[in-house]
Amino acid sequence: MQKFEYVSPTTKEQAVALLGENWGDVEVLAGGTDLLSLMKDYITTPRRVVNLKGIAALSGVRYSASGLRLGALATFDDVLSNTAVRRNYPAIWAAVEGVTSPQIRAMGTVGGDLCQRPRCWYYRAGYGLLAKDETGHALVPDGDNRYHAILGHNSGAYFVNPSSLAPALIALAAKIGVYGPKGARQVDAAEFFRAPGGDGEREYQLSPNEIVTEVLVPAPGGMKNATYEVRQREALDWPLASASVALKLTGRNVGAARIALGHVAPVPWRAGAAESALVGKAVTEQTAAAAAEAALADAKPLSRNAYKVQLARVAVKRAILAAAG
Amino acid sequence: MAEYKWPEADKRVHLGKRISRIDGPEKVAGRAKYAYDINRPGMLFGKIVRSPYAHAKITSIDTSAAERIPGVRAVKIIQGPGTEIQWAGDEIVAIAAVDEGAAEDAARAVKIEYERLPHLVNEQDRSSIPDSALIPTAESVVGDPAKAFSEADVTVEGVYGNEVITHCCLESHGQIAEWTDENNVLLHPSTQSVSSVGGQLAQSLRIPAGNVHVKMDHIGGGFGSKFQIDRWGVECANLSKLAGGKPVKLMLERDAELTVAGVRPSIRARVKVGAKKDGTLTAWESETWGTGGQGGFGTLPVPYVWTGIPNQRKNQTTVKTNTGPARAWRAPNHPQVCLITMAALDDLSAELKMDPLDFFIKNIAMTGVRAKVYEEELLKAAEMIEWKKNWHPRGEGGAGPIKRGLGLSIHTWGGGPHASDCDLTIHPDGAVEVKMGTQDLGTGTRTVLRIVAAETLGLPLDAVKVMIGDNRFPVSGSSGGSTTVGGISSSTRRASTDALNQLLAKVAPDLNAQADQLEAVGGRIQVIGDSSRGMTWKQACAKLGTQPLTVRGKQPGQGTLASSGVGGAQMADVSVDIETGVVKVNKFVAVQDCGLVIDEKTAESQVFGAMIMGVCFSLYEERIMDDRTGRVLNPNMEFYKLAGIGDVGEMKVHFMKGPGYDDRGVIGLGEPPTVSPGAALSNAVANAIGVRVGTLPMTPDRVLAALARKGGSNAKI
Q1: What is the distance between the alpha carbons of residues A60 and A79, in angstroms, rounded to a whole number?
Q2: Would the pLDDT of B712 be above 60?
Q3: Could you tell me which residues are beta bridge partners of residue B599?
Q4: Residue B58, number of CB atoms within 10 A of its CB
Q5: A211-218 and A224-230 as β-strands: parallel, antiparallel, unpaired?
Q6: What is the pLDDT of residue B710?
Q7: Beta-bridge partners for B465
Q8: Which residues of chain B have a CB within 8 Å of the CB of A124?
Q9: Residue B713 has pLDDT above 50, yes or no
Q10: Burial class (CB in 10 A: 0-12, 13-18, 19+), A56
Q11: Are B340 and B265 within 8 A, CB to CB?
């Protein structure tokens, strides 16, 4: 294997100084639940690995009147054991609970969840992020795409974003804290992800020399929220589709709604049409189903994944009902 | 001449009780050493370069760059230029290096050029398979099926199937091999055949059969895929030789394990069955196909169990694909044919508007010699799952999106004993040892040996030391086909009986009795029924003087201690979310006969394991091949899905015991309970949702597709 330099900085300033100008030169290590397998499978072969776990400022889960701060190094166990998260942000709590592996909960981090790479089996077998064979033929559209995207794949990226937290963070209007050579900045969770146009690109709005430092979630302020994941197994299993919903009720009716889907597109998918369909109406089985219908109206399933359209509709409907519940 | 038989029920001390496996504590504590755990001084790491293509001819191989990588100690070409490769993952070059990193680097530095050839890796769509890939077998006809179908009141036709699955051993295949001198090899394999794998290796290495010493304490799963030394075993020993005899560890990586180390063939079938309106089954017609790689599978026993259906027409075709080869998988072929048979009959009972339990029992005579057993087992299983209370006609699974249903199946297996030699030694200090070249696959073999010896010698369990897993011990058969427990218990019973008789003869004069008037009970030798005329086991053994007593017991041998042929019934209670297609197992019951049960607890564990594997292949497992690249897409534990503990539901096991069962002697149990789960779960899902999900695994896409065909309530949420 390629030899690499392993560095453990103790401040974020040191960390970003160690990062490279190009993706792939340097990889960032937090929980390692994804990076280790990427390296073992030669999907990434960095010359340096920067371990962030020595940076105390990136840890912790803190809830206050102004909202919730999840440090990038907070583990899934840290989030799950926080009663304020469970009480105020059930959308986040349920998304984390859906990762049913005790090992990943113990090691996996908030920042790692957002920056993990796609699980597309062609990508993981070495055919590149956009999954093409040596002739340049795209493998996903006429290959086995049962777990691939049903929305947002016009750019040629057919994988689905694997983040568990992202749909909930988008529904809750969270911001992602980023730090780089030019200092700190914040990105709306809804703007953080992107569909890459080439194999050398990444699926998020970071420069190669930036790191995620924290996630800031606004105070719930009466936003009722929930996540529903369609997973086949209780054992660790990627959701086939998921949805996170945050609703502000005005009397019986929905005053405001934010809805995001997971595992359906190369990015976590904000469902504006579903939000519009719901606003001004009381939440019922029928209005939830209509919103779900609207969320998937533009779905373009591939050859083998039309069933995911149905699963995504169910996720949206059930998340709306759970949030309102 | 000694009489060899099992003790009567009222005389059994250990036999048939619930006894915890004797190697449980060391396994739980992590002290149990598997092949994977063995590290030898100076050990090298082996690695295999595999074909990335499913069908190709090797045109050139250049290993020079690999040989120059620091730490590389041996490079060997396994299949040279000109060889036609028939599946992706096939072995081309073997490498040994001082660490895994160097071995991996060297593997990547090997330059192999191929001429790509067209491949076929999927056989789901029969119409797209070229004739050259089809191996048909002759049609088989019983009675007059055409007439029977024309006279049938009710006929149903369905398409059923099960995808290819792998063995997915949690400890992958592999071994550590080392040349201890220029003529002798020490082998630590992960094998189901301790007594024979050494001879296989010796033959390949052209050294005398006795020159390979095999040692294995524990194995992390085999399921029928670990009987042979395998090419990687031979090459591991070759690498060791090339490296001057240094130990080489070569264990398959997970992706290789799931690609080349064995699969269970798929099955696809179009089945038509007919009956009279009173429910009498009259006719069967089936056309089956499937693939197990390049090789085929034997003639499928179709219709399964219901061999007495009076009119039958059967066709079978094997499809040759460029995929990893098939190996025996727990009850080879049975789970697949059980599925297509029991599902077709269940569909027929639904068409007849009959409860399938009533339908099965009405026709049970068509199952032949074990009809009575099946009937008893079905009734017992029905009681355990409260069939009559919980069953409903197909599709009436309740209001709301979660539908509940029940399904059933019956199955059979042989399970007769394999050949086995056992040495039982009684030492003058009273110590007892059982030695045998068998292996404990996790089935409880060690525990059974201890129980049988202790029972026979009238001793507590911990008085018996069990030594297995070494080919220098007396030869015992491979653990496959549910043959082990009958073989090893019989040879041990005979060895123990003979050893005891010799001991009794030694001590009889001291007790003023004839040997045949003595018994061994409660750690004593005494006159039968008279505890005042006896001595302790230790005192008795002291009469041996200085020489231990060793007796060889054999299977086969005098008397009948084991037999063959069992039946079983399973019933499943499932819930199906018809909006998502997700299936959950609520409760799953198994009723099984296996003759005389030696240890109820380990026997029950064996059935639980079979049921769990059954849930896995019914709901989750499938090897997914990519048409274009010809590669396995899910050679990992992420998308090659197995059940977790939260997925298996409540499981209950009942053994048929007592008169009519115990007196048949010991019968193997590994395979039979693995056969029915697919059928029982498929039938339960059909009962819940009102339509057949034809192909296993019943994943959400397949369940939703079945519902859509029915025009079910899921068309929109």
Answers
A1: 9
A2: no
A3: B17
A4: 21
A5: unpaired
A6: 85
A7: B433
A8: 636
A9: no
A10: exposed
A11: no
Q: Residue B85: pLDDT above 50?
A: yes
State whether residue B669 is helix, strand or coil: coil
Rounded to the nearest 5 degrees, what angle is found at the Cα of B245, between the Cα atoms of B241 and B249? 90
Cis peptide upstream of residue B509 (ω within 30 degrees of 0):
no
Burial class (CB in 10 A: 0-12, 13-18, 19+), A83: exposed
Q: What per-residue confidence (pLDDT) applies to B714?
A: 40
Span B603-638, pLDDT tens digits: 999 999 999 999 999 999 999 999 999 999 999 999
Beta bridge partners of B93: B49, B77
Six token digits for residue B272: 């038509």
Tell me the domains of chain B and their CATH numbers.
9-21+417-555 (3.30.365.10), 35-117+173-251 (3.90.1170.50), 332-413+563-710 (3.30.365.10)
Distances (CA, A) of A317 to A129, A237, A249, A287: 31, 21, 17, 9
Which residues between 92 and 121 in chain B have a beta carbon less than 8 angstroms from any beta carbon of chain A? 101, 104-105, 108
| Numbered residues of chain A with Cβ closer than 8 Å to any chain B Cβ | 1, 42, 100, 119, 121-122, 124-125, 127, 133, 137, 139, 142-144, 146-147, 230-238, 240, 289, 292-293, 304-305, 307, 310-311, 313-314, 317
Taking only the tens place, the pLDDT of each residue in A123-174 is: 999 999 999 999 999 999 999 999 999 999 999 999 999 999 999 999 999 9
Residues in CB range of B92: below 8 A, 6 or more apart: B48, B49, B50, B51, B58, B61, B77, B78, B79, B85, B110, B112
Q: Which two tokens stand for residue B161?
A: 């199937």
| Tokens 């050493």 -> residue | B33
Side by side, which strands form the sheet with A67-71?
A: A61-64, A67-71, A211-218, A175-180, A183-188
Are B412 and B568 within 8 A, CB to CB? yes
Question: Is B646 close to A100, i.e. CB distance below 8 A?
Answer: yes
Select from A1, A147, A235 the Cβ nearest to the Cβ of B643: A235
Alpha carbon distance B314, B317 (integer Å): 10
Q: Token match 């040997």: residue? A: B515
pLDDT > 90 in chain A, percent: 97
Going by pLDDT thresholds of 50, 70 and 90, the confidence category of residue B299 is confident
Task: Give the pLDDT confidence score for residue B1 in this predicted structure.
Answer: 57
Query: What percent of chain A is predicted at pLDDT more than 70?
Result: 100
What are the tens digits of pLDDT across the range A192-249?
A: 999 999 988 999 999 999 999 999 999 999 999 999 999 999 999 999 999 999 999 9
